[in-house]
Amino acid sequence: MWVELIPFGEQITGRDGRSWVNDHPQGGVDAFQANQADLPIDIEHATELKAPKGDPAPAVGWIKGLEVRDGGSIWGWVEWNPQGRSLMEEKSYRYLSPVFTFDTHTKRILQLYSAGLTNQPNLHLTALNQRIQPAGEPAMTLPLALCTALGLSAQATEAQAVSAIHQMKTDKDKALNRASHPSLEKFVPRADHDAALNRAQAAEIRLREIEHRALHQLYSFKEPAGLSPCG
User: Fold this and answer.
1) What is the value of pTM for the model shown?
2) Dmax of the chain from CA atoms?
3) Cα 77–Cα 82–Cα 85 angle in degrees, nearest 5
4) CB-based contacts of 187: which residues, under 8 Å, 6+ apart?
5) Are 62 and 38 in contact (CB under 8 A)?
6) In degrees rounded to 5, what are phi and psi of residue 177?
7) Do 2 and 63 form a contact (C-beta atoms < 8 A)?
8) Mean pLDDT in each 10-residue stretch from start to end of the chain (231 residues)?
9) Helix H segments across 37-186?
10) Cα gap 196→130, rounded to integer Å
11) How far apart are CA 67 and CA 25, in angstroms?
12) Cβ neighbours for 200, distance < 8 A, ≥ 6 positions apart
């Protein structure tokens, strides 16, 4: 499920009056990718507030990918666990509140660290229950490079991509099977082929020797005495 985590703007002002800048959203995406770790989604920032005290701070979901969308906002692909999905679907919590680092001088947002389910968000973000995909709408936008590699159009759906990948795997398995089990009607072992070729060449040489001896005997035949050609 894709969710909005940080809105785009030269000045992002929270409900409590604090402000930040998200004018370079790709930097946040790059920092996430460099970190190579999923980010936790907890309840009311337990990761930042309870965990340092040794209290339980279980995650209810994990942010597994980030991308820049909608003119510069940062969105995350979330994988919910059963507890998180239940809280979201029952609307026990409607919003996400991100935790990020920022430059103290420029106020530029640098890196996302976690997010918490809350009902009193500071930033103006899209409510979670409003982001469930309507029926028939693609669940995600496929990267253009992936569509090109699969021979699909840029508007291809996730289902079409999965189908194309399965077809490629099927074609590969068929090709490997043909290579491992060639048709006996079209192919023979190399040793048998070479042996048959040698026999054919030997037979041809033997035939030529027989023809040569026959011609030699014919032209060396002597005519009986007293006989001469007609005419």
Assistant:
1) 0.54
2) 140
3) 55
4) none
5) yes
6) -65, -40
7) no
8) 87 89 92 92 90 89 91 90 90 90 91 92 77 41 66 66 72 71 63 76 74 61 47 43
9) 46-49, 82-89, 144-150, 158-180
10) 75
11) 9
12) none
